[in-house]
Specification:
Layout lengths: L1 H36 L4 H24 L7 H29 L6 H24 L4
Helix pairs in contact: 1-2, 1-4, 2-3, 3-4
């Protein structure tokens, strides 16, 4: 029984990593495209790229990583959005702080990598315990 639980937990973590990796690619791609092809700078473009990444990760986490919570989709989405908003705020604060602290040293993509890495643990705990814990 312990082996089954360990495998289940490992698969959930692996799936969460895939969802997060996919969200990261969406975040980085949208950020770079908006900065290159629109007049948006790195701060405004990041707002849109985070929104795209959150929608992507919710879809993957709901269908693959955790499964439906059993709550109405609007309720579940609101909970996910709440955790994502806190995570995104932390992420954006770290990202912005790095760019403002070292504007000529840290490029936006490196700031993004650092911010995402630091917020990942918070996100997993929030999603697994508050959003997708069975109702």
């Amino acid at each position: 029984m312990r082996d089954i639980v360990s495998k289940s937990r490992f698969l959930r973590l692996a799936s969460f990593a895939v969802a997060g990796g996919t969200g990261f690619v969406v975040d980085a791609t949208v950020l770079m495209l908006l900065m290159r092809f629109t007049p948006l700078g790195p701060f405004t473009a990041r707002i849109f790229s985070v929104a795209a990444a959150v929608l992507t990760t919710w879809t993957i986490n709901r269908t693959v990583t955790f499964g439906s919570s059993g709550r109405h989709i609007v309720h579940e989405g609101a909970r996910y959005g709440f955790v994502a908003l806190i995570g995104a705020s932390l992420n954006y604060g770290i990202y912005s702080g790095l760019l403002l602290a070292a504007p000529d040293t840290i490029p936006p993509l490196l700031a993004l990598v650092i911010a995402v890495g630091l917020v990942t643990v918070f996100s997993y705990l929030g999603y697994s315990r508050f959003v997708f814990k069975r109702a």
